[in-house]
């Protein structure tokens, strides 16, 4: 404000308007873009102020008087359409689509995992600029779902192959952004189960975590950044590995923890139960492995 020749009383940006600039028009680890956007807002107010002062000096009567307060409406008029939209809260739950969580160069973010099937011979296709590690996670996820199709209730017998006459395509939108890392495993399983069962995962539920072929959920990194980004995007329930609970307690700000329901899972069966809100559980009478021990679900 001072750099543009005004005093602090000449421009008053409300807290909601400032948050609007930070979340809707910037996405970076620093504050350079935020400074530029705020500069544009102040320059617009400086022009309004100068015009108001000119009218006063010319004794020109004006119905519209200068208002120092900057609201959310003013932000949209000055900066135009938002560059970054809250995609989670606006998304309609769809079978085969799940919200994942990612760690990137500017902190954390969310990513959507989309799965579809088509007539084929059991092939898997992966797209979305995926790295080797995340491709391995996709193969492991599909292998687990195929081997447990009967327990999940996707097939009528243990010998039936769910992909005998179908191909599966896993896609992560945003092909221009490279994606890699061991944190999308449980989200991919839920996306596959969602697609095969035609059940949906709530749009405001996000998942992060890796798992083994035995179904054990493994811890991942970047929890603080992922949770804060998910909170900003409108996520209200997060499913993650049990061994990451300490990271949430020690690293995630208290105000963020209060707005989110955290669910900690040690097996993929717990993940499925929580993600589908009890609609996907092990078939009655089947035995599944839990941390190396057999337990009936």
Describe the protein:
- This protein is of the alpha/beta class.
- The protein is 38% helix and 20% strand.
- The chain has eleven helices and 13 strands.
- The protein has a seven-stranded mixed β-sheet. It has a two-stranded parallel ribbon with strand order 1-2.
- A hairpin with a 2-residue loop joins strand 3 and strand 4.
- Helix 1 packs parallel to helix 3.
- The termini are far apart.
- The C terminus is likely disordered.
- Tell me the strand order in the biggest sheet: 5-6-4-3-7-10-11
Q: Can you give the mean pLDDT?
A: 87
Cα(first) to Cα(last) distance is 63 Å
Task: Count the E strands.
Answer: 13
Unreliable segments of 5+ consecutive residues = 289-297
Total of helices: 11
Major β-sheet profile: 7 strands, mixed
Which bin fits the share of residues in helices?
A: 25-40%
Measured on Cα atoms, how large is the radius of gyration? 25 Å
Structural class: alpha/beta
Quick one: overall form?
Answer: elongated
Organism: Modicella reniformis
Active site: 183, 226
GO molecular function: ATP binding; ATP-dependent peptidase activity; serine-type endopeptidase activity
Protein name: Lon proteolytic domain-containing protein
């Amino acid at each position: 404000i001072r750099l543009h020749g005004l005093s602090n009383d000449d421009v008053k940006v409300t807290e909601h308007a400032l948050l609007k600039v930070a979340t809707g028009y910037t996405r970076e680890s620093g504050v350079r873009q935020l400074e530029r956007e705020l500069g544009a807002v102040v320059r617009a107010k400086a022009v309004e102020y100068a015009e108001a002062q000119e009218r006063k000096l010319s004794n020109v009567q004006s119905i519209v008087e200068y208002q120092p307060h900057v609201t959310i409406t003013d932000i949209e008029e000055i900066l135009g359409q938002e560059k970054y939209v809250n995609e989670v809260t606006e998304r309609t739950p769809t079978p085969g689509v799940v919200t994942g969580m990612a760690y990137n160069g500017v902190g954390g973010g969310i990513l959507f995992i989309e799965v579809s099937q088509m007539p084929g011979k059991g092939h898997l296709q992966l797209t979305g600029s995926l790295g080797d590690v995340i491709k391995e996670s996709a193969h492991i996820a599909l292998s687990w779902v195929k081997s447990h199709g009967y327990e999940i209730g996707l097939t009528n017998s243990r010998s039936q192959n769910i992909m005998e006459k179908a191909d599966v395509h896993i896609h992560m939108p945003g092909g221009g952004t490279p994606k890699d890392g061991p944190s999308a495993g449980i989200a991919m399983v839920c996306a596959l189960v969602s697609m095969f069962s035609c059940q949906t995962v709530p749009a405001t539920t996000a998942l992060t975590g890796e798992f083994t072929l035995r179904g054990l959920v493994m811890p991942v990194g970047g929890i603080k950044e992922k949770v804060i980004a998910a909170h900003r995007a409108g996520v209200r329930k997060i499913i993650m590995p049990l061994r990451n609970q300490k990271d949430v307690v020690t690293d995630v700000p208290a105000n963020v923890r209060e707005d989110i329901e955290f669910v900690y899972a040690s097996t993929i069966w717990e993940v499925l139960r929580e993600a589908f809100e009890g609609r996907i559980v092990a078939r009655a009478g089947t035995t599944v492995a839990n941390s190396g021990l057999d337990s009936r679900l």
